[in-house]
Design goal:
Blueprint lengths: L3 H17 L7 H31 L4 H26 L2 H25 L5 H30 L2 H29 L5 H7 L1 H17 L21 H8 L1 H31 L4 H56 L3 H26 L5 H32 L4 H32 L4 H4 L2
């Protein structure tokens, strides 16, 4: 048969995965499917991200306004539509539908860029920036919401790190695609390329749902009852649960650190690559590739063992501590090379350690919190934190603070972020001890 030549390499690969990733029973195939799903999502996003970041550097004066629009779209459009969809549709329907919706949007952008005159480009850029920011959180939230609905808490500590490896591989390949094609293709063709992995992701989600609930497949079946509540009910649950409130606080403090670095990146791009959008896009794609490469090796070799050995709390606090030292370094040496080192280590640590650890937290809540409250936290709270931090950054710069001084202001915020991570770790441990899948609500 044609596949005989691949059988031995495949068996070697599976043996290596089993040795490194602590899978049990029939978990291997579902974990590999989930990992491939993550690969497709982040491949698409990392093709789109350098285009968005280059727009932010070129349109720096309007960035706070753009982030305000992003927040309003998240709160009043994206989250209500998503919550309404999960209340009315099976996950086997709305998850593929979400991916295909965004793929269709990309084709619309392609048509606008191709057909409309150059004078419309600034407004197309701004709409695209807002759309990509929604896409970045919404599609990734759909992915992780689906994963935590399939896997339990004990499984998550063992396999979420490896599942995140797929996302890192997707990030690397996406960055390579941009670097290699930036000089060869017009930017709007990148948008078309990004639609293909979204369609593959939609098909993978349906296949994983089909496999769930089987006797030999350790994936949680979808509950027969619908997720109750209105489009805004997930918001109420967040504010009534101490567990979910602390997750929201953790996200808010994280966004402050991330926003400070993002704005400093935009300012440094404007200084070092004035008017050269192509060079700026390529440089940012190279940073993304470095981040994803470091993330990949960390997730593959370290993450699962780190979370199991030190627990969720230490894992959540680790990156905020890195951020503290990073901001101190930027405060003393506010140069481009120091910034790149801090940004790469910070983002790699967030993706490799903090993100899988954070997703483990949601395995100990009910389905309404897993989908509706998670979407509100990951979308509206995330972008609300971005928005507030953006205006704080604007206020600090208006007061005449330099890049280094603003970095020093961020140090105590990062320390508070680390403390919140430790508190969440203790709360999660208590939830697991109590053994309640509805722990998020029970804590209220």
């Amino acid at each position: 048969m044609w596949h005989d030549g691949f059988e031995e390499p495949l068996n070697i690969f599976l043996r290596v995965v089993r040795r490194i990733v602590p899978v049990k029973g029939g978990e291997l195939v579902p974990v590999l499917l989930a990992t491939t799903y993550g690969f497709c999502i982040l491949l698409s996003y990392n093709i789109l991200r350098p285009v968005r970041d280059e727009i932010s550097a070129a349109d720096r004066g309007n960035l706070e306004i753009l982030w305000t629009v992003v927040f309003l779209v998240m709160v009043f459009v994206a989250v209500p539509l998503y919550s309404a969809a999960v209340s009315r549709m099976s996950r086997s329907v709305f998850i593929p539908l979400a991916n295909r919706f965004f793929a269709a949007n990309l084709l619309i952008f392609f048509g606008c860029l191709y057909l409309l005159p150059d004078s419309a480009r600034p407004w197309i850029d701004r709409v695209y920036y807002v759309w990509t920011s929604v896409f970045a959180l919404f599609v990734v939230t759909v992915f992780w919401g689906f994963i935590v609905d399939l896997f339990g808490s004990e499984q998550g500590k063992r396999v979420f790190g490896f599942i995140a490896v797929g996302a890192s591989l997707g990030g690397i390949v996406g960055s390579v695609v941009v670097v290699q094609l930036a000089d060869l293709l017009p930017v709007f063709l990148l948008l078309v390329i990004a639609t293909a992995p979204l369609e593959v992701a939609a098909r993978l989600a349906r296949e994983m749902h089909r496999r769930s609930g089987g006797a030999d497949v350790p994936l949680r079946a979808e509950e027969s009852t619908k997720i109750e509540g209105t489009a805004f009910s997930g918001i109420k649950v967040v504010f009534s649960s101490p567990y979910l409130r602390n997750i929201a606080l953790f996200i808010t403090l994280m966004t402050f650190s991330s926003t400070i670095l993002y704005y400093q990146q935009a300012d440094l791009m404007r200084v070092h690559f004035p008017g050269d959008r192509e060079a700026s896009r390529t440089f940012l794609a190279a940073i993304n590739m470095a981040v994803q490469t470091i993330t990949l090796f960390t997730q593959f070799l370290v993450t699962a063992h780190f979370i199991r050995k030190f627990g969720v709390g230490i894992s959540l606090a680790f990156i905020p501590i890195v951020a503290c030292f990073g901001f101190l370094s930027l405060g003393i040496y506010p140069t481009l090379i120091v910034f790149v080192i801090v940004q790469v280590l910070y983002r790699a640590g967030r993706y490799a350690v903090a993100k899988p650890s954070r997703e483990v937290l949601f395995t100990q809540v009910g389905r309404e919190e897993r989908y509706k409250s998670k979407s509100f936290i990951d979308a509206a709270v995330y972008r609300g934190g971005d928005l507030g931090s953006a205006w704080i950054y604007a206020g600090l710069t208006s007061l005449g603070l330099s890049l280094g001084a603003i970095a020093l202001v961020a140090v105590p915020v990062a320390a508070a972020w680390a403390g919140t991570g430790l508190v969440l770790g203790k709360m999660h441990k208590q939830q697991v001890a109590e053994g309640g899948e509805k722990a998020g609500v029970a804590a209220a």
